[in-house]
């Protein structure tokens, strides 16, 4: 009877832990989104979480149309794609490269009728150097004539600065049509939307009558509707999709088994070459604790559209909302990073600084962008241009990386650079920056990955520990039978090992916070060890039956133990760990 009670407790404990795990990240994500909708007064928002080729969860809040009180529907509500259209272009360019029709490094004039020295690589990475004003964007003009008549001047000779331009987008659209010898929209429908069954993605202007009621209304920062849209000759401004449709494309590019392009296959096998994922899909990169985050966001005409992917974990997020509020996306990116890799500086009372000023303010004279602040940092051979972003973030333009603000004291602004060095932005009136070298960084202490225990997990682990203590005392009592073929000891050993695995698994689970910061060493073997345990349970059961060592009650015990292992295995199958 005691054994049955023992196994019954174990069987009960593990499902408790399962539900605790399931609530962990998804619950926090839902709570975060609800909080941000209220904080920024966003009319409506929809977000999807994709993992291992499946949509794990979709969150829909608010209204697509405030005036008509139409609620957001993930299957039907149409959101503006904005810059996410560029991912479709990159996908098509990669197909052209695989077919041998383009070379990413040679000038596009060598394989098109456009006399332009920039390369396709420059287009994909936004490094053409062109003025990114909107000259001619709303004029009714032939696309090719626009490319000839409105070719902008170069703002700088170097192609290292990442600055997206409307001319780049027009050039990409024209090249795709020219090289594939079809209308741009027909190509998108044929090569992407039809193949992926994206039936609710449109580039029509105006939208087809039967879907117009599903189009979300865009709002400005004051929640004033932006209904009137100008008809542009570019398709870039005409893309609409539902989040369910966009997830189909997200799953396609995140699944290395489906990919046809060697370029991206190399990326997923960690063989990064010069055409890495971050460049070919024009995504920004952020690397923390060896985990790479790639992201893209666009806010325009009352809509914000964004994408975040963690390829090494086969995880992606898509986020759409109908308001010009990029701050919400910034918070969303921070939330994802903090939940998958968490870094926090310990409070420091006094910071020792070096006095050598080695950076100066840089005025790039970019039209319409005079309010943005740029800094030029010259640290030996490491010459970089820095751009100060909103919400206390710093971007290195020619590396396309964004660094976090460090709140070390109340009087200065600091930025962490790859945990190796720190930059301080000093008094902006003097337009100077200070660079703090490695030896300063060594005086900072960092810790990572805080625990996120909840009540269910705590109770479950207490029960497991009590069971382990009980088994230990029982072993000591039965040591005199150690030389006999004692199936009771074998059975207890199996339970003991299982308890150890479950306990270790839960601790490791919360240390790594949803398995995304990497599960190394012994912990990564847990699923396979559980399978081995189940196999031995089966073998012991067969031997026992043949030798008549087991009574009817013993058979019941083994069945219960096997059920326990099956629960364990099903958990791993559910989370795609097997």
TrEMBL record:
**Protein name from the UniProt record:** Beta-lactamase-related domain-containing protein
Transmembrane listed as a keyword: yes
Residues spanning the membrane: 452-473, 485-510, 522-543, 555-575
Keywords, A to Z, come to: Membrane, Transmembrane, Transmembrane helix
Which stretches make up the Beta-lactamase-related domain?
A: 34-327
The protein's matches in InterPro entries, at most eight in alphabetical order, are given as:
AmpC-like, Beta-lactam-related, Beta-lactam/transpept-like
